Amino acid sequence: MSQTAAVQVIASDDEAIAAAAAYAAQIAPGAVERDATGRLPHEELRALAETGLLGMRVPPSFGGAGVRVETVAEVFRLISAADPAIGQIPQNHVQFVDTIIRYGGDAQRALFLPRFLAGARLGNALSERGGPTALDWVTRLAGGRLNGRKYYATGALTAQIVPVFATDEDGTVVVVYVPRDAPGVEVDQDWDAFGQRGTFSGTATFTDVAVQDVWVLRRPFGREPADTHGAFGQLIHAAVDVGIARGALTDGVAFLRERARPWREAGVARAADDPQLVVLIGQLETRVRAAEALLADAGRAIDAADASGDDPELVAHARLQTAAAKAFGGEVALEVATAIFDVSGASAADRKHGLDRHWRNARTHTLHDPARAKHHHLGRHRVHGEAPPAADPLV
């Protein structure tokens, strides 16, 4: 499995955030063009591996920084404000690195963690089509052979390793960390959504793939008592949404300053001096700041729960905080991505500006997990004092 050369090793939380900010500035200028043409970000993903951010969660005992969850959320927020399609791709990578760190055996950690530090990237092969839900799988691991077909396989096309969700002969949920170049692995780029167009989220097929025991991790979620594994993945999704909101507002303000013309009744020479538009921007800024604060707070809550050794009260608090950040972040992303046109005028609809990509990206990404489920958990806790069930892997 080939890996990226000249990979940096992140040494601290501050270094991770600085690397993310620099990388975001690097990819932002091409975001409109990538969305318009559907160009897949091969070079950008190689550059991401070189930053060392793919290994930022590897613990110090394996040579990494083991950065805080709060830092991970900020890294993804920064990247997604520049281009959320690229921001979403490593979401699965960091989630499945976390899975190895939490649940992997000594041999699995020794095999995989050094590869992540060296820039190896994980994809994803989770959901399937045709079943009652996206989490009802027919993919099976039996007799050391893996067979199945996955869709929404984000990042699998260019990854070195593809974690595949399946069930074994006993009906136990497993994750199989399959080399992308293993015989029997085929990945198509048939993702054709109107948003998040560059996420490499097509179909992955596994035909009689020979599996080594060290690749198999059993029962990675839905454990009793509950932990923060599901919340960690949800927090990164929330960070993508909050990044979209910030990116949309940044571009909307730039358009207001540089291109928008004032409404003749406003009595001002520049649209940016229209007090009604300035108030609207201020209202949107407040909403985005609130989403960013909820995101950071959820990250701190997960860090506290993990540091406690999974204290049940702290775990429940972290899961609920993450549910709030995810639900609100998605709602704000959609709100801001729509409202920026209210300050921009008809010329903002010109495709060359690409302002519509923010709404399309927000709408596509927020379809992953419905906000109503997060509100349901929050409501049951508020009304009945109930913690989210451990069996729910998405909170």
**Terminal residue distance:** 33 Å
Q: Class of the largest domain, according to the CATH hierarchy? A: Mainly Alpha
- The outline comes out as globular
Average of the residue pLDDT scores: 93
Say which CATH homologous superfamily of the largest domain is assigned. Answer: Butyryl-CoA Dehydrogenase, subunit A, domain 3
Q: How would you sum up the major sheet?
A: 4 strands, antiparallel
The Cα radius of gyration reads 21 Å
Q: What is the CATH third-level topology name of the largest domain? A: Butyryl-CoA Dehydrogenase, subunit A, domain 3
Overall number of structural domains = 3
Query: Helix and strand succession?
Result: HHHHHHEEEEEEEHHHHH
Question: What kind of oligomer do you see?
Answer: single chain
By DSSP (H or I, 4+ residues per run), the number of helices equals 11
Label the structural class: alpha+beta
Low-confidence spans? none
Percent helix range: 40-55%
- Would you count the extended β strands for me? 7
**Architecture (CATH level 2) name of the largest domain:** Up-down Bundle
Q: Beta fraction of the residues? A: 5-15%
Taking strands numbered 1, 2, ... along the chain, how are they ordered across the largest sheet?
1-2-6-5
